[in-house]
Design a protein that fits this description.
The protein folds into three domains: about 220 residues, P-loop containing nucleotide triphosphate hydrolases (Rossmann fold), CATH 3.40.50; about 80 residues, Elongation Factor Tu (Ef-tu), domain 3 (Beta Barrel), CATH 2.40.30; about 100 residues, Elongation Factor Tu (Ef-tu), domain 3 (Beta Barrel). The protein contains eight helices and 21 strands. Strands 7, 8, 9, 10, 11, 12, 13 and 14 form an eight-stranded antiparallel sheet that branches. It has a six-stranded mixed sheet with strand order 2-3-1-4-5-6, with helices on both faces. The longest helix has 18 residues.
């Protein structure tokens, strides 16, 4: 497995999402990360300096680096998912800065769906709030592998070690109910940079790593499932030229597992078997391929394969069925219709489905189950049952985030209305 680990380290890409209650300092924290890691240009810095002066701020307001929409700047809040890209010599980063308001739950689900890590901010003055519980639950629901709790605004509580430890205790009680595996805590002051990139001189009692050190060194090589071979076919390549007269290749992105030439494989849904002949990237033949590489694969046998089919390990096939049980986050302002029909997109497979039942809804502030309400409105999360027009081949979201996730699309508007995690 060392080859896999080396491959991931060479990629050096960490996707993380930030979440927190209103005014917890998410935008300031990201601004501080960009500023202290020298990831902004001089003209950007000059622009936010001028904007800070116009607003009457005593210091440079680093939150202006991320709250790019005019409506956000005017209200002093984040209202949309803002993606930011920066890099250090050790790793590249994609940040999804998500809103803290409960009415933007769908934004957090969208921003966190592909994250390796969730950074949850807690205001040191207020401790763990209902919003903190909600954000931790969504991180748990989406199976984000790593959770980093930043206790922010330590400067406003005199850098108190006791307050930091109390918040740790509060959160750990919550984490025990949510099946979160890797939780870490860092006391910070985003405004002044304490323990963000550089160690704080105000908190000598904290001997752990800084936020940036954790971001640069957290191990993400094992975040993908390397056991289950799953290759959704996106496109069938048939050049039909004199040079490649009989060529048939299958292009797509590896969802999970490790593939090598010679491996025995099965094609879903037909169940036909073959062996991998070659794996290529840009005319370069590979001895091994793994997620999330996009590759071209050829098989030793001529099998009828189309977009939406899946090449899988011969002895580890996915589940197959037309009755699916899933946790669904509703993303649309138009409520879900019980018995309603929707388009369903799962990996590269497109089909139709009907919502047959709502088992229960989740109160995302208390984590209680609500059994007597069968409706589902914007930002609500529920366990639902659907029936598909043809069998779906899938894994549970718990063991495979990619083959265990799907989206529902409104047939009339073509809008994405639901994000589902298969149970």
């Amino acid at each position: 497995m060392s080859d896999l680990t080396d491959g991931y380290l060479n990629m050096q890409l960490l996707r993380f999402t930030t979440a927190g209650s209103v005014d917890d300092g998410k935008s300031t924290l990201i601004g501080r990360l960009l500023y202290d890691s020298k990831a902004i240009f001089e003209d950007q810095l000059e622009a936010i300096e001028r904007a800070s002066e116009r607003a009457g701020a005593e210091e440079v307001n680093l939150a202006l680096l991320t709250d790019g929409l005019r409506a956000e700047r005017e209200q002093g809040i984040t209202i949309d998912v803002a993606y930011r890209y920066f890099a250090t010599p050790k790793r590249k980063f994609i940040i999804a800065d998500t809103p803290g308001h409960v009415q933007y739950t769908r934004n957090m689900v969208t921003g966190a769906s592909t994250a390796n890590m969730a950074v949850i901010l807690v205001d040191a003055r207020h401790g763990v709030l209902e919003q903190t519980i909600r954000h931790a639950y969504i991180a748990s629901l989406l199976r984000i592998p790593h959770l980093l709790v930043c206790v922010n605004k330590m400067d406003l509580v005199d850098y108190s070690e006791k307050i930091f430890e109390d918040i740790q205790t509060q959160f750990n009680k919550l984490a025990g109910k949510l099946d979160i595996q890797d939780v870490r805590f860092v006391p910070i002051s985003a405004k002044y940079g304490d323990n963000v990139v550089d160690r704080s001189v105000h908190m000598p009692w904290y001997e752990g790593p800084t936020l940036m050190y954790l971001l640069e060194t957290i191990h993400i090589g094992s975040d993908y499932n390397h056991t289950l071979q799953r290759f959704p076919v996106q496109y069938v390549i048939r050049p039909q030229s004199d040079k490649y007269h009989d060529f048939r290749g299958y292009a797509g992105r590896i969802a999970s597992g490790v593939f090598k030439p010679g491996d025995p494989v099965k094609v879903m849904p037909s169940g036909l078997t073959s062996r991998i002949k070659t794996i290529e990237i840009m005319d370069k033949k590979l001895d091994i391929a793994y997620p999330p590489q996009s590759v071209l694969m050829t098989l030793e046998d001529d099998i009828d394969i189309s977009r939406g089919d899946m090449i899988v390990g011969e002895n580890k096939a996915p589940q197959t069925g037309d009755k699916i049980d899933l946790m669904l986050c509703w993303l649309s302002e138009t409520p879900m219709r019980l018995g309603g029909k929707y388009y369903l997109k799962h990996t590269t497979n497109d089909l139709r489905c009907m919502v047959t039942d709502v088992a229960y809804k989740i109160d995302i502030n208390t984590l209680d189950n609500i059994y007597d309400d069968k409706g589902l409105s914007l930002n609500e999360i529920a366990r639902v049952h659907i029936k598909t027009t043809k069998p779906l081949y899938y894994d549970s979201y718990r063991i495979n985030r990619f083959t265990g996730s799907l989206i529902l699309i409104d047939e009339a508007t073509n809008n994405t209305v639901g994000a589902g995690m298969i149970i």
